[in-house]
Amino acid sequence: MKKGIILIALVLIAVLTSVSVTQAATLKVGSAGTEIRMIQSELQTLNYNVGPIDGIFGDKTKTAVLAFQRDQNLIVDGIVGPQTLAALKKAYNLNVESTTIEIRKLQSKLQALNYDVGPIDGIFGTKTKTAVQTFQRDKNLVADGIVGPQTLAALDKAFNSPQETTKQIINTAKSFLGVPYKWGGTTPAGFDCSGFTQYVFASQNITLPRVSIDQYAVGTSVAFSNLIPGDLVFFNLTSGTQISHVGIYIGDNQFISATTSKGVAIYGFTPYWSNAYVGAKRVY
User: For the chain, where do the domains classified as CATH 3.90.1720.10 start and end?
Assistant: First the structure.
């Protein structure tokens, strides 16, 4: 008899616990509280219209839940049960992670264009907003600090312009001044001449062959009188007509290159270099 009573009691406890857990994990029209507010906020972040974030599971929140469930191939009942809640958390976390990466890219582009965004941390804070507004004013856009399609297009155009590419190439090249020469070197630990040009241009997503003679085979030939910063300049420092050296023209009759005597350094077109000069190529 006692065993029977104990068994019945255990069954009742299990049923009540199950009901409690199910109710706690099931949110629907009429539910209210902090958890509803959090669900509304996450749905809104994912671009579902929940109306005001008020912590009340009303018709608009239900419609948003229904839309989310359809998009996620879940049972479309407008009830936030365990499956819907898990899918919502996963989608929200992916969105936040993606947003952080996009903001970091935005900050990097603005910084490259000399706008002060503060630390590149993936957080759209006051400094980033101010930088966006300054950029918008400079481009005659509505200075609202919001990165919409127009602002994004203008930013990409400015960042990817040939002038900006040239500026970044020269700045990157100069950042390695003093790096020692290393035969076969292709990293900031040590460069040879073509390893240096290849590395610098790769920083701007421009692919060059590995050695100077092959680099001379790409791009458009440029007359010496038409050189502009960013052009590759080629030399023959050995006997014959073989290309044996390459540098990057930086303007004012100067180029930057990695040489055996000085490592990465800036040189003028002295008689030595003028006599060894073979030609130039423009590769972007």
Answer: 164-282
* Residue 240 confidence (pLDDT): 72
* CA separation, residue 117 to residues 64, 104, 182 (Å): 35, 10, 37
- Other Cβ atoms less than 10 A from the Cβ of 85: the count is 16
Whole-number pLDDT of residue 274: 97
pLDDT on residue 177:
98
Burial (CB < 10 A; 0-12, 13-18, 19+), residue 201, is: buried
Instruction: Please identify every stretch of the chain with a pLDDT value under 50, giving residue numbers as ranges.
Output: 1-24
Q: Is the pTM of this model over 0.70?
A: no
pLDDT in the model for residue 116: 94
- CB of 147 closer than 8 Å to CB of 269: no
Q: Which CATH superfamily is domain 164-282 in?
A: endopeptidase domain like (from Nostoc punctiforme) (3.90.1720.10)
Could you give the CA distance from residue 37 to residue 78 in angstroms, rounded to a whole number? 16
Outline which parts of the chain fall under CATH 1.10.101.10. 91-160
Per the listing, tokens 């297009």 go with 153
User: What was the pLDDT predicted at 14?
Assistant: 42
Nearest to 264 by CA among 276, 283, 250, 274: 250
Domain 91-160 sits in which CATH superfamily? PGBD-like superfamily/PGBD (1.10.101.10)
Give me the phi and psi of 250, to 5 degrees please: -120, 5
Whole-number pLDDT of residue 1: 47
pLDDT for 149 equals 87
Find out whether 61 and 51 touch, Cβ atoms under 8 Å.
yes
